[in-house]
Specification:
homodimer; about 325 residues; alpha/beta; Rossmann fold; six-stranded mixed sheet; four-stranded parallel sheet; 10 strands; about 45% helix; globular
């Protein structure tokens, strides 16, 4: 455990990110709004550099390293969005980067991570322990490990999305009933909930997870960290963490209003609606919050709601298959 | 012919549009920038309301109608983006709308146009004259015809994109070598070129058209309005106008630097790159400018360039087919 970041840490992170990160737009569709009976605002974090929110937390962490630490480099393990976020953030900071990726991770994600300048080390998911491997590389090289969520600077970086949502809602003159957030380890939720507790205090913040991987939702209900049963399957490859982070859960338990789970079919339908009406490419894990609102799983009582579309890194073949199933 | 709109008209249009239109972002990808050797800024007009730039010109025209004129209603003919832009703009202005659409136009475009509140009148493209039909309905009802490009208020509305590009480039500290614009009748190009002549005077503005429909490019070279040979085919359904508008060509002849044509294959590749690296859904006609830059058809000498991604209204099946051909 580490101390939870506070609003001031998120404000500092926002200042750090201002010259390098994109202030992603809130996108909406009159057709979707009319069909739903409330105003649906999509926080289009798919338009963030590297195609997901992960760049924010990674940059906020790496930008605080000393020159010597940057020279020693950074290490991260991830099969996807965190890898790309760390690789690009490290490159902007002039830090050498090693990313541990499963040997069977999608070729396109390995390629992109290399394109952002990282050294990719492949490991066997079945026989090797990635955390031990990461610690070994970190200690051999004196490199800094950038965790995907259990880190105060990473959480504060993701929390800048909450500051932007609050500012953009003020610009629109809207107080949303709720903000729905895709959840894996809980860092994005913890950061956003921390920002909104002060900035939009009347707005409730919800976790949205894939069915079978709703550890945070169940943990919020039971009051302790629950784990997912083994053997589950979901198309949301970015959201398959087995249990909430220790600190992220401590924050979310205090600040989140609850959690709901969505099915693969609901996620796929949400991806297609985002394609059709918002002109955005959203990956399965990035579409859970949108799916919950489109499927009526979160009650807004006619008030506006925000869905964070957290990432858009999906292979063309998978996206094409989803579209084909919904073509008409 | 009518007098060409001036910068002041575009500034007034921008004030009119500010409360209702989206200031669409300039999107870029570090991976694309590195592959190209210059900074590629995509003006993401696919994120405009109704999924294309057409809303801007339509709103700027309809918002200037009197209460009596709004009550008498507006008429437009279009199979796609102009239809949706006029329908939504008219609804915001409280004007009754009739849209003439070919009976064989895509069902989804007919559906969306109705969802924006318009009455859709279908006609037979082979046996009926849509312009005569439009004039008949306009005169019977006393309704105002909103032309797709030959109108000073429509051109000024599209020109607000040029003002935004100039302001956004200033925010980034960039002077682009060129701005590439998809062209059909030439209203978007005329508006943008008018704005940039003052706002970014060192930046050249280019027309990008589909092969076989490069009437504006050929007209710019010959100095008079050329027509496309009959029987051509292109996937760019939004860009199939047979000849440049009279006034739009007079403006573009004075202000545009030239025109290039792109193949269906280049357009499709650009759509897939936009999907992969910008997370944007771009329709074929909206992707020509991007295609010209990605295919190296416009020389930037390493300087930044802007591609206007003008629309994103494409059927799921067509987009899926394009992705499948480029999946790897």
């Amino acid at each position: 455990m580490f101390p939870a970041p506070e609003l001031a840490d998120i404000v500092t992170a926002a200042e750090r990110l201002r010259p390098v990160a994109r202030r992603t737009p809130l996108v909406e569709s009159p057709i979707l709004n009319e069909a739903l009976g409330f105003r649906l605002l999509i926080k289009a974090e798919v338009l963030q550099f590297t195609g997901s929110f992960k760049f924010r937390g990674a940059y906020n962490r790496i930008a605080q390293l000393s020159t010597a630490e940057r020279q020693a480099g950074v290490v991260a393990f991830s099969s996807g969005n965190h890898a790309q976020g760390v690789a690009f953030a490290a490159r902007l900071c002039g830090a050498r980067t090693t990313i541990l990726m499963p040997a069977d991770s999608p070729r396109i994600k390995q390629e992109n991570t290399r394109k952002y300048g990282a050294e990719v080390v492949l490991y066997d998911r079945l026989t090797e322990d990635r955390e031990a491997l990461g610690r070994t590389i970190a200690s051999e090289r004196g490199a800094t490990l950038v965790p995907p969520f259990e880190d105060p600077a990473v959480i504060a970086g993701q929390g800048t999305i909450g500051l932007e949502i609050a500012a953009q809602c003020r610009e629109l003159g809207v107080t949303p009933a709720l903000v729905a957030v895709p959840v894996s380890g809980g860092g994005l939720l913890a950061g956003i909930a921390t920002a909104l507790a002060t900035e939009l205090p009347a707005t409730r913040v919800f976790a949205v997870e894939p069915e079978g991987f709703d550890d945070t939702g169940r943990s919020l209900r039971s009051g302790r960290r629950e784990s997912n049963p083994p053997g589950g399957h979901s198309i949301c490859d970015a959201l398959l963490v087995p249990t909430p982070g220790e600190t992220t859960f401590a924050i979310n338990r205090r600040l989140a209003a609850g959690g709901v789970a969505v099915s693969d079919a609901e996620v796929e339908a949400a991806m297609v609606e985002a394609f059709r009406h918002a002109k955005l490419v959203v990956e399965p894990g990035g579409a859970t919050a949108l799916a919950a609102l489109l499927a009526g799983k979160l009650e807004t009582a006619g008030q506006a709601a925000v869905a964070v579309a957290s990432g858009g890194n999906i292979d063309a073949a998978l996206f094409a298959a989803a579209l084909k199933r919904h073509a008409r």
